[in-house]
Amino acid sequence: MLSLPDVTLVMIETRRHDLARMAIEDCLRQADFGEALVFSDRRLAVQGATYVAIDDFPTKLGWCEFLWRDVPAYVKTRQALLIQWDSWIFDPAMWREDFLAFDYIGAPWWYRDGRNVGNSGFSLRSKRLMDFLAKREARFPVTTPAEDDLLCRRYRPAIEQETGFCWAPEDVALDFAFERIRAARDSRHFGFHGTFNWPFVLDADRLAERVAIAQRDPYIVNTGMLAEIAAVEAHPFPWRRPHWQQAA
C-alpha cells in the first residue's frame, strides 16, 4: 500500500453521502494517509477516517468558504488531498514524491496562459497555502463557487509574486490527475475527477453500482451528469489532448 504520512485525505460532503463514502473507501484501499478527515452532516461509517460533524451547506459557495476558512485548522500534515464524491485515487503507482514539493496540484484545464493548473475536484494543496488563505479572508475572499478557478487563475499571480508559493507544472499536474484533458485513452494518472470519467476508471460491476446510486439523486440527474457518462462511453477519445503535446 502507498504510504502518505505527510498527507491528510479530506472529504467535505453533505448531500451525496453514499457516493462520498465509496470515494473515501477507494482512496483508503490504495493509500495509508497521515489522517483521513470526513466533514459531513451525517456520520459516514468509514473505517480509518475521522468524522467531523458540520451543518449542511445551503449553497456551493458555503462549501467553498468552509474549505478555505475552516478546514485548514484541522489539517496537521504537510499536505491535504481533497477529494469529492466523484473523484478518488486511480493509479497509486503514479504517485511521485516530488508532488509534495508544490503548494497546489490539480488536473490541468485547457488554457494556454500559464494559469492552467488546475481543477480542485481531486487536488493536493499544502498546509501553508491553506493557512495563508484562511488568515487573509479580506484580501482573498471566496466570491464564487468555482473556488479552483478563483484560486488558480484569479488569485494565483498575486499569491505567487508575494509569497513564492508554487503551482505544479502542467505535465506534472497531468501525471497527478485528469479531468477534461488526457494524453491518451490509456494514459496513467494518480487520480481523476468527474462522473463522466467513471466508465474509464471502474469495471462494469462497480460502474453499475455507482450509477444506480446516482440515478436516485435529483441533482445528478437534472444536471445531465448521467447523460454525459453515456456520451463519453460512445466517443473514441472523449478528452482534449494537452496543448503542449499538440504543439509537439
Q: Supply the CATH architecture.
A: Alpha-Beta Complex
Biggest beta sheet attributes:
6 strands, mixed
CATH fold field value:
Spore Coat Polysaccharide Biosynthesis Protein SpsA, Chain A
3D shape: globular
Rg, Cα atoms, Å: 17 Å
* Secondary-structure class: alpha/beta
| Beta-strand segment tally | 9
Terminal CA distance: 36 Å
Number of domains: 1
On the 0-100 scale, what is the average pLDDT? 96
**Percent of residues in helices:** 25-40%
Number of helices: 10
Q: Your description of this structure?
A:
It is a single chain. By secondary structure, the chain is α/β, with parallel strands linked by helices. It has one domain (2-247): Spore Coat Polysaccharide Biosynthesis Protein SpsA, Chain A. It is built from ten helices and nine strands. It has helices at 17-30, 60-69, 127-134, 147-163, 170-176, 198-201, 204-214, 218-222, 225-234, 243-247, and strands at residues 2-12, 31-40, 50-53, 79-83, 87-89, 104-106, 123-126, 177-178, 191-193. A six-stranded mixed β-sheet has the order 3-2-1-4-7-6. Helix 1 links the parallel strand 1 and strand 2 (31-40). It starts with a strand and ends with a helix. The mean pLDDT is 96.
Which labels suit this protein?
248 residues, single chain, globular, three-stranded mixed β-sheet, 18% strand
Explain briefly what this protein structure is.
The protein has helices at residues 17-30, 60-69, 127-134, 147-163, 170-176, 198-201, 204-214, 218-222, 225-234, 243-247, and strands spanning 2-12, 31-40, 50-53, 79-83, 87-89, 104-106, 123-126, 177-178, 191-193.
